Amino acid sequence: MKYASTRSADAANSVSAAQTIKQGLAADGGLFMPQEIPALTQDEILMLKDKTYIERAVYVLSKFLTDYTEEELRRDCEAAYGEVKFPGGAAPLVKVDDRIYSLELWHGPTCAFKDMALQLMPRLLCRALDKTGEKRDAMILVATSGDTGKAALEGYCDVDRIRIKVFYPVDGVSRVQKLQMATQTGANVDVCAIRGNFDDAQTGVKKIFADASIAKELDEKGVFLSSANSINWGRLAPQIVYYVSAYCDLLAQGAIMPGEEIDVCVPTGNFGNIFAAYIAKLMGLPICRLVCASNRNNILTDFLRTGTYDRNRHFYTTMSPSMDILISSNLERLLYTVAGAEKTAAYMRALGTDGKYTVDADVKAKIDESFLGYFCDEELTKKTIRDTFDTDHYLCDTHTAVGLAAARQYIAEHGGARKIVLASTASPYKFANDVYTALTDKVAADELAALSALAAYSHTEIPAPLAGIDRRPVRFTKTIDVCDMPADVLSFAK
């Protein structure tokens, strides 16, 4: 399996899976995509029904990472998804009501869905360094709106030949998320806040990747840059697995018949998680509709409804901060899939110069075949948390609530009877203050007090990774301007 840039149709520039994971971004600034989508037959899905999550992961990933052996993938998946990292098992599927099933992706070491990819990705990267004969060390550069940063730090902590640098918006993450990053252990990690929002951080990171002078200086230090965001295929590929696994679990639970179509709803900001579901659909998984759920920053909803992507709008800070994004990087992969490299490159140039683009009618029609967009404001988010707990006895976080609200809007508008797999992206305790307030109309003394208050009210337990987080030593306190990010990266490379 070879991979090519979303902005170039030149097959001569295609690279292996290992090179793709090592490199992160294509040389022309595009994102890597497989040159073909492997098939997943109904017989294969039935075979996977009775397998473990680890076995399913090895099988699906082997179709994409063809220069990795089955034994290598098995060892890496066992280390990533075993009981040590995911006590009780990875990605359980929990029934919320007669239509909606919650795919709980947050039972890993950081209580967020990012663990599903970022426990595996460091292992894939380490192997990629050997497979490509790379002599330099890798520096993972991450912009985060909260969850990716901690998950990447946890995944790459003390990994040989790799160091990791994380930037986050100083006022754009929850206190719990900030503490998770600020207290991270490991000799190879560094964390820095920036004055700005997530898009400022992400744009700053992309500029560093594109700066030839920085690359040259790092090369002289024996270091090269790679990414842990979902722009890296090594991050996105593991996300395909859990949609396949969810379908298999529905079969195993007797909720659907073989070959029966389902819908998938994903609360999303950067579009990576829902695009992984789209890849699963293209492989042959019986998915009908992909429901894209946005918060008040509803740029994706507007795009899916109008065909115009316009980031020239107000940026809102919400109670679902991991979705507070106006540049959805992985949307480029969807454009490439339905429109080809030439049109995608033109759209990205327009986004860079004008902050917006409009797809043509043919491209819009192809997107409409699979995707629908809905959004949810703050009041509806709180109401959804409260109503779901009171009616369905299901406790969810703010991001999952956005997804639930979108799924219910979709049901009200389209009816039908298909089961809906909802990607539940974080533990409710990651955003305990907002969840507690939504349930009780009370405000806890602070975010840490909210952990105990939520546990007492809901009669649920605080997840072990979050218990006592305020008693851990704080290591990282630095805040810088966006313009100082390049110098900070170079300093960390010494």
Report on the structure:
Strands 3-4-14-9-10-13 form a six-stranded mixed beta sheet, with helices on both faces. It is of the alpha/beta class. The model has no long low-confidence stretch (mean pLDDT about 95). The protein contains 21 helices and 15 strands. About 55% of the residues are buried. It starts with a strand and ends with a helix. The chain has a domain at about 95-110 and about 235-465: Rossmann fold (3-Layer(aba) Sandwich). It has helices at about 15-25, 40-50, 55-65, 70-80, 115-120, 120-130, 145-155, 175-180, 200-210, 210-220, 235-250, 270-285, 300-305, 330-340, 340-355, 360-370, 380-390, 400-415, 430-440, 445-460, 485-490; strands spanning about 5, 30-35, 95, 100-105, 135-145, 160-170, 190-195, 225, 260-265, 285-295, 310, 355-360, 370-375, 420-425, 480.
